[in-house]
């Protein structure tokens, strides 16, 4: 069997009802030969939910299920998918998100056209009946923008498979940003092209999320700053550090004076473009409006 052009890695524990929609959106990608590597990260003995539709989708010959079943986190599951992938290019899809039609083809064409081993795309975020769009008006990220502006979310990443870079399994969150920086550092990239269209649908949902564990989140942000920010300017590193401190404080009960001090320091370092992050942090600390925010 010929190797596909693109491998889509989809880690899952099979418990979300959204898995079928995610898998269907991956299989609906046209204009490129692909495989979907479904990494089964459910604990041994667990049963998947999804019914007849999911069973039908899993029977597609382009789907391969990798029985990882170690429940060691998304980074470990994605590494298992990378080891199993056969495509020259790789992208990722969480089991609670979806691809828009043409996502994979658009990113592959941009990668081939520009010769870049790493490509990003825009995203549509759906929360509380509202839609927000991220990085839809930018054709490329260069210089400090690679650190401060690029949304290197797992679902927007598209890269060559043979990079020698692996996901950091010691991080519970911020692993996607660290992986992106590892890719760009390894390839010595000063610019990364971006498909300026919302090709990923990100469904914000309630419940436990890794980035709400403030200690683990700060640990990931610290790794990003200490290990991967060294090739950027001192002002950019300063802004990243202050962003991390504001985000760390927003999930802690109380600490309003600490949050305010850090928010002022961030605005001073990065200017008024940082107001959204400061306002988001304030909103997270006010339960009445928290449901309207992507936190």
Please explain how this structure is put together.
- The protein is of the alpha/beta class and 295 residues long.
- The protein has helices spanning 19-27, 51-58, 74-84, 103-114, 145-148, 175-186, 214-228, 234-250, 256-270, 275-284, 287-290, and strands spanning 6-12, 34-40, 63-66, 89-92, 98-99, 118-127, 130-134, 140-142, 158-160, 191-203.
- Strands 1, 2, 3, 4, 5, 6, 7, 8, 9 and 10 form a ten-stranded mixed beta sheet that branches.
- The longest helix is centred in the last third of the chain and has 17 residues, at 234-250.
- Mean pLDDT is 88; it is low at 288-292.
Notable characteristics:
single chain; about 300 residues; Spore Coat Polysaccharide Biosynthesis Protein SpsA, Chain A; 2 domains; 10-stranded mixed beta sheet; 10 strands; about 40% helix; about 20% strand
Q: Per CATH, which architecture of the largest domain? A: Alpha-Beta Complex
Residue ranges: pLDDT <50 for 5 or more in a row?
288-292
> What is the CATH level 1 assignment of the largest domain?
Alpha Beta
In total, how many beta strands?
Answer: 10
Oligomeric status of the shown chains? Answer: single chain
Judged by helices, strands and strand pairing, the structural class is alpha/beta
């Amino acid at each position: 069997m010929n190797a596909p052009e693109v491998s889509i890695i989809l880690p899952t524990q099979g418990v979300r009802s959204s898995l079928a929609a995610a898998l269907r959106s991956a299989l609906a990608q046209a204009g490129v030969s692909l495989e979907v590597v479904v990494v089964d990260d459910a604990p041994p003995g667990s049963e998947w939910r999804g019914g007849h539709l999911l069973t039908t989708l899993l029977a597609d010959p382009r789907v391969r299920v990798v029985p990882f079943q170690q429940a060691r986190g998304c980074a470990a599951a994605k590494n298992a998918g990378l080891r199993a992938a056969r495509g020259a290019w790789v992208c990722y899809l969480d089991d609670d998100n979806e691809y828009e039609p043409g996502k994979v083809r658009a990113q592959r064409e941009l990668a081939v056209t520009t010769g870049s081993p790493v490509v990003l795309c825009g995203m549509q975020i759906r929360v509380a009946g509202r839609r927000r769009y991220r990085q839809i008006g930018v054709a490329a990220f260069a210089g400090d923008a690679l650190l401060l502006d690029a949304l290197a979310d797992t679902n927007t990443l598209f890269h060559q498979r043979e990079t020698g870079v692996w996901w950091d399994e010691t991080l519970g969150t911020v692993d996607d940003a660290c992986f992106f920086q590892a890719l760009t550092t390894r390839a010595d990239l000063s610019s990364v092209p971006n498909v300026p269209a919302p090709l990923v649908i990100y469904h914000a949902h309630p419940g436990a999320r890794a980035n709400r564990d403030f200690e683990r989140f700060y640990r990931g942000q610290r790794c990003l700053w200490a290990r991967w920010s060294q090739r950027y300017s001192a002002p950019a590193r300063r802004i990243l550090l202050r962003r991390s401190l504001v985000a760390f404080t927003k999930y802690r009960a109380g600490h309003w004076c600490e949050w305010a001090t850090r928010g002022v320091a961030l605005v001073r370092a990065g200017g008024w473009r940082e107001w959204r992050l400061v306002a988001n942090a304030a909103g997270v600390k006010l339960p009445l409006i928290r449901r309207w925010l992507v936190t």
